[in-house]
Structures are given as structure tokens and as C-alpha cells.
Protein: F-box domain-containing protein
Organism: Linum trigynum
Amino acid sequence: METPMARAEQSPVRKLAGMDDDRLSSLPDEILSYIISFLPTKFAVGTAVLGRRWKHLWTRVCNLDFDNTIWGCCHGAKSRHRKRTRRDEYFGFCRFVDRVLSEHKNLDSLKRLSLHFEEGYPYSYGNRYLWLKMELGSGSLLEEIDVNFKAEDGTGPTFPMHRLPEFFYTLTHLRVLKLDGVVMETGSSVFLPNMKNLQLLRVKKVDGESLGRLLSGCPALETAHLETDHMKIDEYLRRKEECKLIASLPCLKNLTIVRFHCITHWAIEAPSIEHLHLRSVFAELQFLGSSKFPCLDSVTVLGSVGMIWELCLLYFLQQISNAKELSFSWQPLATLQVRCDFELPAFPNLTHLKLAVDASILHRFLNSAPNLQSLVICMESKLGDSMIRREPVPAYTPECLLSSLEKIKIVNFEGVEDEKKMVAYLLKVGAVLKEVNVHVPRRRGPEFGKLASLLKLLPRGSSACEVLVFDEDDYFDDSDQ
């Protein structure tokens, strides 16, 4: 007699779903190798235990991903009686990489190479094991390289392993290059015609000539993120030597420079740039070619700036006057807050503005942006008495307050008299305002109710304007001050 279980196993639904077949084993070897290539190499090699057919599939994967932190997690103990030491883990990882590189059948067809290495291990063996076995050249099909040497103390010593071979800088198919904690020695020849994305983090011993050669050797580069370790202001000012970088990047759209203090003068030609992000840049930044960028969408300038920046700040503002979004922390504009003999350029396309400045600078920006739609004002405590010394009520009303400004957000509102007058003025003359959000710091909790009631009772120039008051901390993203 046929049981219900047997009938279920023979059901058409079960056959249609293919549950009686091993669909994975029916795939060709090429597809199986492609599938397991998305695993970290440690786990891809581990598929060899699945059967005789799987034994050599990993040797043809198109991606190699070496991560010694994963290796350490997978090998917690050598035996029941003796735990594995850091040295054991390190040498085991090195032997594993040696085996993979020696048994791989087609290194020239690799698409992606990733090496994440946590420092703090003995280097007597590991200094030589990787790059000497990577016998690749400009004919390699590598499209992405991700190398990360993570030091326990944030910087770490420099070892031969950090120096990349010259063939890295002549890979014609390379599209993405991410280097973290390496020594950047580009050599005399750099040619990466298909490079689209370049990320340099904590690079060691970089100079303007090498970096300029690398950037200029990437004619198709679209995104560049350049970042080094932190340098104090006094260390920068004590530097006597000057380091200049010159590069032409016709396709560059996104540029981020963070704490790149080893370069004192930047001269970049980037007519297609759309997004510019600067954080703690102690350097003179000059854009060559067109004085205004026709495609510029957003500019963010955060953190401290050097004395050199003060000399070219207004010229820089003129160059970015086509931007649609601007975000400035208080340090970059600090030099303008003590001056009255300057004029800001017109920002005809500006729709979103975020500033941490006093009332005088704010009024100048509002007057220069006739089409502004959204405004964020950061009442930073570091401004000291500058807001009290200024008269917050201007003699004339900026055009944007009468025709386009619909949303205002005020951050870190302390409730001092000058701040109240500024909010009252914006509410009174804002003819098309729809929403005003005021964020009061939590430390002003006992006064929150009083401040909220006061702000909501202020007269408004727009009947549709809604005032919302929040009891929460919300600060400008300015962690590198």
C-alpha cells in the first residue's frame, strides 16, 4: 500500500521544483568555479572536500580574497592541549597563500585581487611570499585590486611587503584600485587607461610627484578618494619644504581629499567635476582651466584649514559658484567673520546651503543665493561671542527669503538673545517658508519647554509655515576639527 509520504515524494509539484535532482552538480565546471569565486578564498578552497569533482574547481576561480583575520577566526585552536598563538596563525596564513598561488591554474585571468592583512605578526617569512609569486604583467586581466595593511596602532612600521610591484601601475584592464597602508612608489611609468575608481587611505611616503604621476596616468578616472593620517596644525606650519601636485583629470566627477597634508599645493584640471569634498586640507587648492565648473553639484568643506587657505578662499568660492549644494563648517569661513571688506560671488544655482557662521556671513550668503530652497544653520559654540557682536537684522531682505526658501533647520540652538532675534527675523520675512525645525541641545532640557513656546509664538510671514522644536543633539559633521 502506497503511503502518503511516498505519494508526496512523487507529486508533480516536487518534480517541477527539481527537488529530486542535484541541480548544482549538473552545472558546468566553469559556472561552478565562477560561483565559488565570490566566496573568500579560504572558503572557496574549502569546497575541495565536497567531492572528487570539486577538488580542483577552486584553482580556476577569477577572484582571490586573502584575509588573515578570517583565517584567525577559522583556526582558533591547533589541538585540544595547545592553543594557536599569533605566530602560528601568521605562518599558517602565509603557507595557505603560498599554496593558493602555487596551485592556481590561471593567475593571468584573475579579475579581482584582495589582500587584507592585520599587522603585528613576525615578518621574517611574510616579507617575500606574496609579490614574488605574483608574476603578472600589463597583459593581466585584473579589474579590481584591494590591498589593506591594517596596523594595530593606526600607523605601523614600513616593511617590504607594503611596497607594491610596478606591474600594479601598468594594468590596462584595471578599473578599481584601493590601497590602504601601503608605500606608494609608482616608478617612472604609470598607465591605467581604464581606471575609474581610485582610493588611497593611509598611504606611506607619498609625494606630489608620485601622486601626480598616478593621477595623470588615469585618463578615465571618475572617482578619487585621497586620505592620509592625521597631522597637527603646528607640525604642518613647521614644514619648510613645499610639495606641489599637478594633474589633469578630464573625466573626474567625484573628488575627496582628507588630511592630505603631505601636499602643500594642489593644481588640478578637472572640468567635469560634480562632487567635491574637502576635510582638514592644509594646502592651497587651485583648479586649472575653466574658472567655473559647469557640472558642479555639491561642495563640502569641513575641518580646520591652514593659513594658506585664507589667501585663496574667496577665489575658491568664485570657482565653485555654480554649485547646487554647499556645506561649510565654521573653520573654513572663520577668516571672513573678522573682515567686512569682501564680497561673495553670486550663486545662481544654489538650492541647498549648510553653514556654521555668524549672522553677518549668513546674510551675505543668503543675498548671493537668489534661488535657495533649503537652509541649515549650525549655531556652533566655537563661534564664541561673534554672534553677539553682530547685528542679526540686516538692512534689506535677501531675494530667496521672499521667493524660494521653503525649509530652514537650525542646529544647536542655545536660546541666547541674538539667536532668538535671528529666528524671529527669518520667520517674519520668510514669505514662502513651509517648515522651520529648531534643534535644542539636551543640556538645555530644563529650558526646552519655555524655548519651544517662545519660538512657536513668533510672528510669521508665511501662513503655511510650521515651527517644530526638537529636544535633541544634532551637530555639524566636523569630527576632524
Remarks:
- The chain has 15 helices and 18 strands.
- The longest helix spans residues 86-103.
